[in-house]
Structures are given as structure tokens and as C-alpha cells.
Amino acid sequence: MEGIVLDLSRRDKRRLLKTVRKCKDARLKTRYQIVLNVAEGRSAGDIAAVLGVAASTVRRVVSRYVEAGEAGLVDRREENGPCKLSEEYLSRLYEIVADSAENYGWRRPTWTRELLAITMERETGIRVHVGTMSRALKAIGARRGRPKPTVACPWSEPAKRRKLQQIRRLIAKLPSGEVAVYEDEVDIHLNPKIGLDWMVCGQQKQVRTPGNNVKRYVAGALNGRTGELIWVEGERKNSLLFLQLLWKLITHYRDAKVIHVILDNYSIHSTRQVEISLQTEAGRRIRLHFLPPYCPDHNKIERTWEDLHANVTRNHTRPTIPQLMAEVRHYLRNRNEHKLHAMAS
Questions:
Q1: Could you report the per-residue pLDDT of 289-306, keeping only the tens digit for each?
Q2: 18-55 core/surface letters (b: 16 or more CB in 10 A; e: else)
Q3: Of 38, 96, 149, 177, which sits 20 to 30 A from 277 (CA to CA)?
Q4: Dist CA 340 CA 334 (whole Å)
Q5: Model-level pTM?
């Protein structure tokens, strides 16, 4: 090695090799391997490439060994005292990251590592470097992501809970000969939704948009037991689209005595037109169960629409709405085939 030569006896080499085999500390083991490789006459560059460290690390380790022997290979951070990233520290950090920065006196709603380090020093008295805060965030599984916009349900918590429990009991104790589905509509835009994608360094992918947006709408009903999706398409999102789906459900589940439809409070679901249609002989097989307002997380079909956007509409390159809708149909048909195949196997 350039500038430093280690002349180890056979006895010293055997002892170091024996220590390496027994060593369970990965970092300490690497330092022993550096010393042994230097003693064999290998260069710093070669050792760094094989062990996955920097050449400067190789030189520093050898200098510490020459200066203090094996004692110099021990991690000197042990002298720093107890680890700052204790379970208590990480637990408090988890609580703070889950909250808004505004609730801790900052005039901004989002966190930065610098703000977290300052806030945690206030809360715990422990001061850490920004780089250490990065390790702490990784340790608690924190990530940078897009928040989900939500609207608070206007109902009281007990009333909301009672309604949701009623729907859960319906699903759990569904009599034979009855079917329960989750219903909702989704907008299909010709102008693509822009979303995250993998890109190579130095490249930013481009998604060409048609400019003039065109919309189509899909109304769907997800079977809570089988996962099968029944859907219809339309150029307008209105009561006629909703009724078209209900009639398709009646036809598809022709042997079902009752078809329970769990849905949100969108206005097209409760018009006079819908009310009259459900008073017919066929319509009386349909029972509507409205979820509490602004509770999309309790409508299982929402996840299906998220998957549809992820697999078809996000960053899409289809130039016309007929081509885009063909992709939508292809995805939904394949999805049903996979669900039904999984049920059969």
C-alpha cells in the first residue's frame, strides 16, 4: 500500500484470521480484513473495490492499526456514550412525523429534516445532526409521499360508527340467495393523470397530452365476496348511468332474491327517477345502503378504481378516447378473469 507497509508475522496473521471468523460486528470485521489485505501487499484501490469501502477508509484503518494495534480497530463511537437513537427517541419521532409541523409552532405545514432535528431537541433534549435524522427517519419507516385529501364526515362519531357496523353485519350475515355489492363511479379523462414513474438519472419522461380533454364515465359494482366487477359506461355521469348499472345487476344476478347495493351519497343515487324505478317489480329486488357522508375508505370499490388509474389512465399515451376506453375494458375484463380464476382454484 502507498506510504504504509504492514509486516505481520505468521502468528499475527493467524490470530487476526481467527478473530475475523468469529467476529459478528460487520464493520469491525471489515477493518480486520483491510489490515490482512494490506499485509498481503494489496493496494488501497484494490482493497476498497473488493470490500466496498473508500480508499481513504483503507488508509485511515491502517494508520489506526499502526498507531494502536487491534485496539485502534474498535469503533471509537463507543466513547460517545449511549446511542441517541433510542427506542424512546424513535417513538417520539414517529408521533411528531405523523403530525403537522404547524402543531409544533412552525409557520409551515410540512416537515424538513432540519425542522425535525430542532423540534426533537426541544421535545427530548437530544441534539442530532441532519444526517443522523435521515437514519432515524429510515429506522421508523418514514417516507416522503403525497398526502391524501379528505373531507370530514358531518355525522357524529357514534352515528357514523352505528351505520358502518350495520353494513358490516349485513355483509357478514348475508343470507343465501342474496348478493351485496359496492357501487361507485369513476371519471376517465383523455388528458392523462400525471403520476410517479421510474426514470434513469438525468432523464425526465414526457407525457404528451391531447390538449382538449374528453371524458367518459364508468359506473361499477364490486361483489364483496367474489371480487367480480360489473360495470357500464356512459358519456354523462347521471341517474341514467346509475340505473343502467342497476338493471345490469338485476340481469347478471337473475337468481338473487335481493341485491344489496352499498354506495355513497352522490346526488345521482337518490333522484326521483331512481326512486320510481326501484318501485317496479324488478326494482324491488334492489336495496340501497348509503354509507355515511365522505367515507370513501369504507367503499371497497375505491381500491379497484385506484388500480385502474395506476394500470391504465396514469401517464397514458392514447390519443383518442375510444382507444383509451378500449384499454379500460381490457384491464377490467382481465381483472375479472383473474378474480374468478382465484376463486375457482
A1: 999 999 999 999 999 999
A2: eebeeeeeeebbbbbbbbbbbbeeeebeebbeebebeb
A3: 177
A4: 10
A5: 0.69
